[in-house]
């Protein structure tokens, strides 16, 4: 497993010289999330800014603690023996000079006087059990707790932390946590630490109020909540430091998985003391996780168009002999079918720039932030989150467009100038390989809205890929300005009116990007059923109340 670290990247630079902001905002993706979280229009933006300011102040002020942290390393492993990968990482902690090492097993914890013994015994997830135990072990004995899927690089720096601090932890990557989360995978604390006492004492009261995932019940979300509350109250002892991201959490889970898959090298910053690899030996798949259908092959256009009962009924209605626009629908359907079936046969003659565009919204919910994070992390793609100020500066005449049409006008304008993929914030990237391949094959792609919802063959403007300078987008923008039509109507009419285009283009059936309409999801929610995602699905749309009101640019 030598792909994990490039030792040449690690220097003996002092941790005291770390730039807090640079470490916190590791990449453009982290900066984009931070900008969303601290947008002035967001109600909680002031709290986020205040918290970051407080954490930076703790980081830069005098750190000397009255009582040092004992030089003890605690790790926990419950159940069977650790896998070989874990043993390698655990060895990096066992050999630290001047430190004692204790691996806590089921038998050890069975005899340890846990204050929250009832919660520990009731927990059915090893991760939750480990969380409960680590807090109490640190409170009673002090030392450093670290997960088994972490690796230590600099024992000398750990020694300095123990000799100067009373408590330390680190901030997880913003683009992964989608907020300021203080990780609980690496914690240092003196015995009887008031911070650890609060974490231990508050657990029974908070436990039944939280969601079922260990992350929220006992893990980093719970841990962060207690520490942030104590920081705001001013009750932390001297020598408390919450380190910025790259000290303990230099990589996201996706970055680690990509390196493992490709046998690549993770470029670790010089300030990294130890790193977390997100092994998740305790993780269980949620019963609410969406299921993917087993058939891996792409369907015919007709099958994908009629992939559900509601879509089949809507299709029959459009094809009915008495439908007033039957001939127009038939002509357009033939064009869509021809382009779709030609896609796999034609030589690639076009390509779309590998950049993802999204537009900042004051209606971003925590769920929406997780959706935009799925686009930020796409391998091989750059990412741009546009603010309204940037859009007004970039797009002449945008202020004159009616509010309800500004978003579509802006996205068409961005793609016309820069090319790339525009993805609405309520879309989740479900298959990034699909987008990597399709951008190499065509000069334009989009998807049909669900027939039952659109009542016709309507091209959705929520997810579009395009070369820069496409006449199709110029025509759509012109129609929006001169005719005052919506973005979906302007895009649809421009696409179907275009003749003899010299680039490959395709509009995918609804099952690729919009497999469920609003009614489908409401029925599933009421029945408490889990929807099955079609095998061809590459993106998923969610319906949240926050999106009912369009963003006013």
TrEMBL record:
It comes from Estrella lausannensis. The keyword Membrane does not apply. The keyword Translocase does not apply. Gene3D superfamilies: 3.90.550.20. One of its GO terms (molecular function) is mannosyltransferase activity. This is Capsular polysaccharide synthesis protein. One of its GO terms (biological process) is mannosyl-inositol phosphorylceramide biosynthetic process. One of its GO terms (cellular component) is membrane.
């Amino acid at each position: 497993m030598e792909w994990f670290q490039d030792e040449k990247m690690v220097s003996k630079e002092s941790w005291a010289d770390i730039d807090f902001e640079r470490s916190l905002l590791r990449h453009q993706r982290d900066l984009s999330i931070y900008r969303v979280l601290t947008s002035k229009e967001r109600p909680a933006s002031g709290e986020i800014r205040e918290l970051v300011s407080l954490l930076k102040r703790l980081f830069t002020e005098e750190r000397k603690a009255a009582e040092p942290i004992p030089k003890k390393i605690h790790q926990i492993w419950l159940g069977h023996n650790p896998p070989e990968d874990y043993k390698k990482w655990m060895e990096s902690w066992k050999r630290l000079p001047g430190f004692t090492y204790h691996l806590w097993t089921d038998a050890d914890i069975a005899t340890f006087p846990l204050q929250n013994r009832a919660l520990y015994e009731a927990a059915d997830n090893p991760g939750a059990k480990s969380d409960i135990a680590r807090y109490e072990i640190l409170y009673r004995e002090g030392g450093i707790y670290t997960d088994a899927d972490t690796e230590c690089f600099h024992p000398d720096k750990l020694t300095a932390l123990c000799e100067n601090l009373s408590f330390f932890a680190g901030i997880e990557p913003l683009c992964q946590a989608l907020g300021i989360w203080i990780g609980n995978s690496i914690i240092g604390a003196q015995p009887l630490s008031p911070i650890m006492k609060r974490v231990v004492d508050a657990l029974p009261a908070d436990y039944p109020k939280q969601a079922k995932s260990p992350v929220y019940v006992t893990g980093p979300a719970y841990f962060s909540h207690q520490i942030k509350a104590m920081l705001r109250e001013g009750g932390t002892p001297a020598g408390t430091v919450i380190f910025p991201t790259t000290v303990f959490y230099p990589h996201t889970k996706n970055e680690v998985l990509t390196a493992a898959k490709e046998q690549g090298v993770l470029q670790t910053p010089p300030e990294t003391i130890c790193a977390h690899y997100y092994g998740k030996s305790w993780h269980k798949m949620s019963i609410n996780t969406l299921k993917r259908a087993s058939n891996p092959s792409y369907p015919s256009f007709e099958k994908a168009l009629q992939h559900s009962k509601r879509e089949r009924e809507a299709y029959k209605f459009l094809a009915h002999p008495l439908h007033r626009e039957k001939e127009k629908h038939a002509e357009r359907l033939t064009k869509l079918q021809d382009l779709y079936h030609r896609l796999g046969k034609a030589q690639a003659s076009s390509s779309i720039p590998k950049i993802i565009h999204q537009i900042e919204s004051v209606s971003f919910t925590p769920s929406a932030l997780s959706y935009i994070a799925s686009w930020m992390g796409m391998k091989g793609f750059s990412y741009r989150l546009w603010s309204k100020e940037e859009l007004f500066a970039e797009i002449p005449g945008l202020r004159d467009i009616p509010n309800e049409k500004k978003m579509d006008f802006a996205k068409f304008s961005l793609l016309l100038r820069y090319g790339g993929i525009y993805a609405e914030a309520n879309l989740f990237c479900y298959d990034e390989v699909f987008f990597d391949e399709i951008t190499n094959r065509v000069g334009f792609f989009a998807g049909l809205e669900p027939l039952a919802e659109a009542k016709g063959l309507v091209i959705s403007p929520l997810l579009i890929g395009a070369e820069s300078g496409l006449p199709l987008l110029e025509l759509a923008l012109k129609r929006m300005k001169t005719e005052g039509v919506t973005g979906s109507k302007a895009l649809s009419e421009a696409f179907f009116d275009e003749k003899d285009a010299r680039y490959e283009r395709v509009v995918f059936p609804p099952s690729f990007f919009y497999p469920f309409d609003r009614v489908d999801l409401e029925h599933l929610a009421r029945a408490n059923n889990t929807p099955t995602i079609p095998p061809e699905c590459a993106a998923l749309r969610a319906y949240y109340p926050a999106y009912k009101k369009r963003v006013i640019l």
